[in-house]
Write a structure and sequence with these properties.
The structure is a single chain. The chain has helices spanning about 1-20, 80-90; strands at about 25, 35-40, 45-50, 55-60, 65-75, 75-80, 100-110, 115-125, 130-145, 150-160, 180-190. The protein has 2 helices and 11 strands. It is mainly beta.
Length: about 190
């Protein structure tokens, strides 16, 4: 009987250690980039990024679960060309005055063994929300020697979306593609 109680106590301690609470990580804006790419008449690719972003990640390594909440400041869109930035912010495209933020929220991390395969969630843009799955091209956690050995988790993610789902219809009659490639590089510091 005594052995059984000890075994149950040990099993309980082990189970609680394995299923520890998720850790919270704050997005590091200096190592997080959100960019998009769209075909320009088959001749070139228009690219831009959002310079202001914030958010949090919750991640439970043992349980292979997580949550992501990333917000993009649409007024910070930067194509490298001021006139194009102004057009991107206009009512024609992002309508940044009316909808100053876009948001990606997820509570589903999909693993293949120990490798993060994708993060499934919802993108809210121009007041509309639709599902988006970000494919994980890279993902790891490491102790940062520059942050007093604090843990950082991050990766490179991408998705191709149909922008018309969010009412971003500019240029369709001219032959601009509906398809937009999103590329997210995210690093977040354990709190």
């Amino acid at each position: 009987m005594r052995f059984t109680l000890l075994a149950l106590a040990a099993a309980s301690l082990f189970a609680s250690a394995v299923h520890a609470a998720p850790s919270t990580y704050a997005i590091d804006p200096t190592h997080t980039f959100a960019t998009f790419e769209i075909d320009h008449f088959g001749a070139s690719t228009n690219r831009a990024r959002f310079d202001k972003k914030s958010g949090n990640v919750e991640f439970d390594k043992a349980g292979k679960t997580g949550k992501v909440d990333v917000e993009l400041d649409m007024t910070s869109v930067n194509s490298g060309t001021p006139a194009f930035n102004k057009h991107l912010q206009s009512a024609d495209i992002f309508d940044a005055e009316k909808f100053p933020n876009a948001k990606f929220v997820s509570d589903k991390f999909v693993f293949d063994g120990d490798k993060l395969k994708e993060v499934t969630g919802h993108l809210t843009l121009k007041g509309k929300t639709a599902p988006v799955t970000l494919k994980a091209n890279k993902f790891t956690c490491y102790e940062s020697p520059m942050l007093q050995k604090r843990e950082v988790c991050g990766g490179d993610f991408e998705a191709t979306i149909d922008r018309t789902q969010w009412g971003v219809d500019y240029g369709i009659p001219y032959g601009f593609s509906k398809q937009v490639r999103l590329v997210m590089q995210i690093e977040a510091v354990k709190q």
